[in-house]
Each structure stands twice: as structure tokens, then as C-alpha cells.
Amino acid sequence: MANLKGKNLISITDYTKEEYLQILELASEFEKQPKQPILSDKVVASIFFEPSTRTRLSFESAANMLGARVIGFSNPAATSLQKGESLHDTIQMVSSYSDLIVMRHPRDGAARYASEVASVPVINAGDGANQHPTQCMLDLYSIQKTQGGLDNLNITMVGDLKYGRTVHSLVQAMCNFNATFHFVSPEELKMPSSVKMHIKNMGLEYYQYTNLEDVIPFSDIIYMTRIQRERFSDPLEYERVKDCYILDAATLKGCKPTMKVLHPLPRVNEIATDVDKTPYAYYFQQAQNGVYVRQALMAAILGVK
Amino acid sequence: MSNERKKELVVSAIDNGTVIDHIPANEIYKVVKILNLDQYNDEVLIGTNLSSKKFGKKGIIKVKNKFFEETEVNKISLVAPNATLIVIKDYEVVEKIQLNIPQEIKKIVKCINPNCITNIEEIETYFKVVDKEPLKLQCHYCEKTMTNIRFEE
Ligand SMILES: [Zn+2]
């Protein structure tokens, strides 16, 4: 088993496939027994330079269930940052008060830089448009749990595939497991060619669609994302396509019985509420899984598991 | 006089300094700019559109009393990866350096991503060379790749 003690998690490529699987296995242990006070002598710093209530609560809940004390801030306006303190100085201060830093920052690359300044390990809770590796890990966990494994699956992704870092990371991770990819998006928001190139280089296949109905019969996972108005140069184009990628219970007719719908949340209207009651809805459990995965990461990085 | 000797004379027309040879002719003013040679106080000789077996048309720059440091050499290699540096002391060629694109580039290049932390805070930039031909760099921090190289001011 790999020893993850003291290891940063900044980008999904920082961990090997084996290290991921190890975290997923540990996460399933925490799912069975979430409350284990194994970090009662540890301090976790949760520093959010931009608000992200959902991610912050998930991390802090994970830390609390392990008995760790949590310090930090969720509103940079209330800190000395507003007075122009550099990221360097803030990280240096915070790392002297804590055993582990969980950090969210609006700038790309801020987490990598923080990990080079900090004397304690750093978990990236999102750096600008760049990486959000714990989201990717909880996605993997959810896929593994609902499909009984990660290998040889048909993974469908729907919506904004151009700008969505979540889907890009998930493609990269699922390339380790012989997945076949199906991309459903409007023309303006297609998967970037660099991501498609990566799939080809891994010897795997992808298919592109504009019609959501086409992928329903064979998908093992349908990963929905939100289409944002501000991504369109032409507002009329947005109006034309926005409702084409709404998943409702009727659309799901004919899907595999084991198929699950995932979404990084929050959703707006891309998944109709009538899907919630179907056996295919998994997005709320998916969010819940985030807590177990974050528990596993913190425990492994702090060397207590 | 042998051809070899004649060539040496051409490049050693300065007594002390450095000759940058085999610069692609269309990149010569970029090299001048990145090395700030337009601000240089001693003699600078610039030749362009000279015929070359290797390049067709090449450029050459001779800088008197100048011996380049590693960061400057790296800059040149990013613009003219096939250039040769010839170090001259007392009219003699004392060293010939065939340039190579390094695996990693620190400090000299600026990240093209305006939201990159290196463009917000005082941080030394750091790139990995992911492709040499055509040149493609990846920022160690924001992970964006770029083919359009901009140098730090
Ligand atoms: Zn960058």
C-alpha cells in the first residue's frame, strides 16, 4: 500500500491509479462508520478565498466527524487579505497553526503555489478554473459504488463540456479504467480537442452527439452539467439550445436498470425534479459521498489510516 | 585559405564578446528584443538574410564584450532553438555552444493565462516543455499549455 502521509492533493494527476483506489477503499470504510475520532489531536485549516458553501461544509463536516478541530475563514473580506496581504504570507501563517490546509482560491494555480509555501500538506478544494480533485474522487467513488466497479463502463457527459473542469478531470481519471465516452453537447460547448486527444492517446473511444435521447439506452452513467448563459456569444443560440439538455423522467425511458444520473450540484433546471424519485437519481448521494472521500483523504494524508 | 578559416574570420570580427549564429532570419529582431540589445552600450553587429546551407536564410548577431548568462541563453534557445553561440576572446573562438531547448524554464517566460496566480502575485514562473517542435510549454501552476511564448518584461 502506498503511504500518502504528508502528500499534497492539488491536481488529479498527483495521485496514481493505485492511490486513488486506496482512497476509495478507505472511503467505503468511513461510509460504514463515519464517526471515528481519529484526528482529535489535529487542526485542519479550511481557508476559502472565495465562497463555496457546499464544498466547505463537506470538508468541515468530514473533519468534524473525525474529531479534528477546524479553523479558517470562508469570507476573505473579513480577513487581512482585504488589506493586501500576499497569499504567501497568509499560507505561512496558516500552516503554523494547522496540521493540514484545505484551500479554495479563485486564481488558477494558487493551490500548487500554496503547497510550495506551506510546511503542512495542502488539499486543493478548487483553484479557479483549473482543478477540483476531490470532486473527481467523489465522482469515481459514486461510479464505483453504483456500478460495482470502474472498469469497462459507458460514461456519458451532457451539457457544457467545453468549460466544465469537472468533466475534463473525470475523463482523465476514467481513462485509467477502459471507459467508452459519449459526449452530448451543443456545438458551441463541445469537449475540447486536447481532452479528446488524450482519450485517443490512451487507445480509447469517444462519440459525440447533439441529441440527448440517443445515448439513453446504453449509458451506465449520465453525468449532467449546467449550461450557463454567459458561455454563449449569441444569446439567441443559448435560448435555442438551453432546453435541449434537460433530463426528465420521460427521457430516461429505456435506460439500463443500473444506470445512474450524476451531477456536481448545484443544479438549476437541467435535471427535472421528477427524476429525483426515479431509481436512477444519484446526485444527492453523490454529494454525501464527498464527505466519506474527504474523510479518507484527510486520514490518509495525516497518516492515521 | 581554407573555407573553415575564412568562416572563423567572418564570425570573429569582434575581439571579445559573443556571436549568435544560425538564427532564423525572421526571428533576428525578436532575439535583439529579448536580449535588450537595443539598449546595449557597446558594439552590436546585426546581419540578416545571409545565405546558410542549413537554413536557407540566416541571421547573425555579434555583441562586443558580452558573455551571456544562463537565463539569457535559455531565452535565445526558445526563439532560435538551432542557434549556435560562439564565445570570442582576443579574436580566438574559445567556446562554441549548440543551443538546446531546456526541459524546464524558470523566470523568463510569462504565463498567458491572465487568471494564473503567477500573474497576480510576485511568483517566479515555472514551465515544463511538453513539445519542442513546435514549442509548447505548460505552466507548472495553472497547468495551461501555450504555444505563443511571451517573455517577462
Ligand atoms: Zn500559469
Can you describe what's shown?
The complex is a heterodimer of chains A (305) and B (153). With 305 residues, chain A is of the alpha/beta class. In chain A, 35% of the residues lie in helices and 14% in strands. In chain A, the strands form 2 sheets. In chain A, strands 7-6-5-8-9 form a 5-stranded parallel beta sheet, with helices on one face. Chain A has a 4-stranded parallel beta sheet with strand order 2-1-3-4, with helices on both faces. Chain A is globular, with a radius of gyration of 20 Å. Chain B has 153 residues and is an alpha+beta fold. Chain B has 3 helices and 11 strands, in the order αβαββαββββββββ. The longest helix of chain B has 10 residues. Chain B starts with a helix and ends with a strand. The mean pLDDT of chain B is 88. At the A-B interface, helix 4 of A face loops of B. Bound molecules: zinc ion. The site of zinc ion has 8 residues of chain B, from loops.
What is the CATH superfamily of the largest domain in chain A?
Aspartate/ornithine carbamoyltransferase
Mean pLDDT across all amino acids of chain A: 94
* Distinct small-molecule ligands in the complex: zinc ion
Sheet with most strands of chain B: 5 strands, antiparallel
Query: Number of domains in the coordinates of chain A?
Result: 2
| Tally of separate helices of chain B | 3
Shape of chain A: globular
The low-confidence runs of chain B, each spanning 5 or more residues with pLDDT under 50, are none
Radius of gyration of chain A: 20 Å
Proportion of helical residues of chain A: 25-40%
Strand order of the largest sheet of chain B: 2-3-1-4-5
* Spatial strand sequence of the major β-sheet of chain A: 7-6-5-8-9
Please tally the β strands of chain B and state the result: 11
Order of helices and strands of chain A: HEHEHEHEHEHEHEEHEH
Beta-strand fraction estimate of chain A: 5-15%
Q: Which regions of chain A contain 5 or more consecutive residues with pLDDT less than 50?
A: none
Tally of domains of chain B: 2
Strand content of chain B: 35-45%
The CATH architecture of the largest domain in chain A comes to 3-Layer(aba) Sandwich
